[in-house]
């Protein structure tokens, strides 16, 4: 198999994307922790739960959304549960697995964190782009996510 190496333009774009992603993730995580006392995974769990009609999900579904193993998520949820942000209970329907529920304290933590987090996303990314670049970024990310989410064991 012949390797299709990146040309100079492609390599510049790829390296720029990787550097941007690392720096952006680092800065957003730092600000979220500093301003709201939440880690990025905390925020992801809380926001994923808040977007469901009953503010609860099976642990396995939440793990799939976060692209984490059930074990890793379970350990993280234990820490969040200790802080009163979520609760866990056995799944009554089948006795297997557990249901994770957003608590009122978790809802308040998310509502307190969201304005600052959105401001940081704007400051470090959205407001730096033109409307056309926002459209292009949306199209690009959805295309890549759509392709990767179709792989077995993945959910978009």
From TrEMBL:
Gene3D superfamilies linked: Winged helix-like DNA-binding domain superfamily/Winged helix DNA-binding domain (1.10.10.10)
Lineage: Bacteria, Bacillati, Actinomycetota, Actinomycetes, Micromonosporales
Provenance organism: Micromonospora auratinigra
Domain (HTH marR-type) ranges: 10-146
Pfam families: MarR_2
GO biological process: response to stress
InterPro entries hit by this protein: HTH_MarR-typ (IPR000835), MarR/SlyA-like (IPR039422), WH-like_DNA-bd_sf (IPR036388), WH_DNA-bd_sf (IPR036390)
GO molecular function: DNA-binding transcription factor activity
Top-level lineage group: Bacteria
Protein name, entry field: Transcriptional regulator, MarR family
């Amino acid at each position: 198999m012949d390797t299709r190496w990146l040309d100079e333009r492609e390599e510049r774009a790829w390296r720029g994307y990787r550097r941007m992603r690392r720096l952006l993730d680092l800065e957003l995580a730092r600000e979220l922790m500093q301003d709201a006392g939440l880690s990025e995974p905390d925020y992801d769990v809380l926001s994923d739960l808040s977007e469901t009609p009953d503010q609860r999900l099976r642990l396995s579904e939440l793990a799939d959304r976060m692209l984490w193993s059930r074990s890793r998520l379970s350990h993280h949820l234990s820490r969040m549960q200790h802080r009163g942000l979520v609760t866990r209970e056995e799944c009554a329907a089948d006795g297997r697995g557990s249901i994770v529920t957003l608590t009122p304290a978790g809802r308040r933590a998310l509502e307190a964190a969201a304005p600052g987090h959105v401001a940081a996303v704007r400051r470090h990314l959205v407001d730096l782009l033109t409307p056309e670049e926002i459209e292009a970024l949306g199209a690009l990310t959805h295309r890549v996510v759509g392709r990767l989410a179709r792989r077995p064991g993945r959910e978009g």
